[in-house]
Design a protein that fits this description.
Blueprint lengths: L18 E3 L8 E6 L5 H12 L3 E9 L4 E2 L12 E2 L4 E8 L17 H16 L12 H14 L34
């Protein structure tokens, strides 16, 4: 019996996305990918050979169904008893001819501006929290700050200062009329 021939189907500028997953428990000659649902084992084998020159001994694939959720993800107010199943995920485990070793994870992420990404992620999560149905039932974030201020006032650490009235505001410089030539039309009879 003749062994299967691979590498015959040439792939030029493919319009698919393969995601290599970090799997620390698998052997070094195995790699796991997230792939589109329409990609088959032969396509995967040909893609790796033509794009990276990697010879593949075997490919295992499975489709992982996503969990049922109420309503579609990202909806502002989930509707009760409206069920939605997100798109399934297809994973492929490839046995390669030569081992692959992951590079070490970087210790510092300043080069990629990770602090800005983390701040944006935190802000996004806070915004999404306001759209949850039980948002109004939970105490607000300002409540903790108000409680701290009240404790400081009661313990005597801070003194009470009333809010200044309009005539007590600090005005720098002289008062000046800004718009003198504006004519407001009369309304009504």
């Amino acid at each position: 019996m003749k062994p299967p021939v691979f590498g015959k189907k040439q792939v030029f500028l493919p319009n698919l996305v393969l995601t290599l997953l970090r799997t620390p428990n698998s052997p070094p000659n195995f790699a796991t990918f997230l792939v589109p649902l329409n990609l088959n084992k032969l396509d995967m084998r040909d893609y790796l050979f033509h794009a990276y020159g990697i010879r593949v001994h075997g490919v295992r694939s499975y489709i992982q169904m996503s969990k049922l959720t109420q309503d579609k993800p990202g909806s502002k107010r989930p509707k009760p008893r409206k069920w939605f199943r997100p798109k399934s995920i297809k994973k492929m485990m490839v046995e390669m001819e030569r081992p692959f070793v992951w590079p070490e994870e970087p210790k510092e992420f300043d080069m990629w501006d990770k602090s800005t990404f983390d701040a944006a992620q935190k802000d996004r999560e806070m915004q999404e929290e306001t759209f949850r149905p039980d948002f109004r039932e939970k105490p607000s974030r300002e409540r903790a700050s108000i409680a701290e201020q009240a404790k400081a006032l009661l313990s005597g650490e801070e003194r009470w200062r009333p809010t200044p009235r309009n005539d007590e505001w600090d005005i720098e410089g002289e008062e000046e009329e800004v718009e003198t030539d504006v004519q407001v039309p009369k309304t009504g009879p």
